[in-house]
Amino acid sequence: MKIRRAIDHELVTGEIVHASGVAGDDLKDGIRRVRLDDLGLEYGQGMWRRLRIDPRDPLSATAENRARTEFARDGWRVATETRMKVSATATEFRLEAKMLAYEGETEVFKRTWDIAIPRDLM
Asked: In angstroms, rounded to a whole number, what is the distance separating the alpha carbons of residues 1 and 79?
């Protein structure tokens, strides 16, 4: 598992990106797992976060977060994965989110949100 924490400044576009968490986009490969022997349970979690902005354009700011949590025991494995992105326009705040749940590799639950919240002069 490789953990990354970096601030990158794209010289051509001016965009600044602060990234932390699991390197890459596949959270499954970056999960840190521990075994709780007294419970016979394996637990793991991985996440990444990216904050982006072009300093010349405050409305370009976005915050993205992804996380995956797994539990396993004797042939039983479940996981949840969440994704969230927050941004803004001149007239509204935006929230896009998704929650997924798995039993083994089978997706058993999925919910998505795409919400616009009026800024009301904020």
From this structure: 18
